[in-house]
Amino acid sequence: MGGDHGPSVTIPALVRVLERRPDIRFVIFGHEEQVKPVLDGLPKLAGKVDFTHCEIAVRMDDKPSQALRHGRWKSSMWRAIDAVKNGEADVCVSAGNTGALMAMSKFCLRTMASIDRPAIAAIWPTTRGESVVLDVGATIGADAQLLVDFSILGAAMARALFDIERPTVGLLNVGVEEIKGQEEVKEAGRVLREVNLSSLDYRGFVEGDDIAKGTVDVVVTEGFAGNIALKTAEGTARQIAGYLRGAMARTLMARIGYVFARGAFQRLREKLDPRKSNGGVFLGLNGIVVKSHGGTDDEGFGAAIELGYDMVRNRLIERIKADLELYHARMPKAADVLVPEPRSAEA
Residues 31, 57: contact at Cβ < 8 Å? Predict the structure, then answer.
């Protein structure tokens, strides 16, 4: 029911997904008057959809606390998340209110043991392929332990999505030198170096331009910087696409040149298309929730569904739990840490 277009986009997206993933089934929660007419017009979905009517839909401008208080147990968003908790669904996908989706997901699914706060992880197109970037908006500020947690979560997602045995991980910083950056980032780097997990390969600090280069498989930062980086990249992609359209239409020779280079421009357009990498995965919860961009079309929403499909198929939750267990097994126990006795005033 969420996003800028509601069922007119989210329901047709199911047809696109079904063509590529014929083994998938859909459980839809929404308002019958808006959903049923769209469903009835798509005969390809017959026998593949279970629909549940919900009186309440969380609005895009609702505050998270408001949505949690008034929409719990009744809203389409809550019912979709609860379906994951109860085993009725493997993954929840929504284009709705991000804050409300995160608040309800945390309340319903709970965070995994030892995870303080979940992160939103995005798939980022790079010159080398794709990378995982987190957090892109769930947290504002992060201490060293949270950055270490995000590194473990992001590496598990990269292993599940890219089929890499030991993904490379970098901490986003203002420079690659170890003396630069905030103390929390430097401390997180020290911990990752010392613990030397077999589930990830820590490569040190990376800078903003390393994200697009694909220098590492996983880029870790806190949500404030991550969200700004994400929105900047989206805006830059639209800006470049606009420049290209303008340049190709400027003169007759440019239009003729476009005809001969059409294939190359089409590949560039696909690479810059944000719909291809739509969907942010909520990591650190006892269940998989994918947040689709609210302004996307049916192709973009379909990409978010397929992202969730891949996370389930490749056992993301099991991978994360195993990696967290490995990390805590490698960390020194409190009894093994030597704490020097305080020196006297005389000394």
Answer: yes
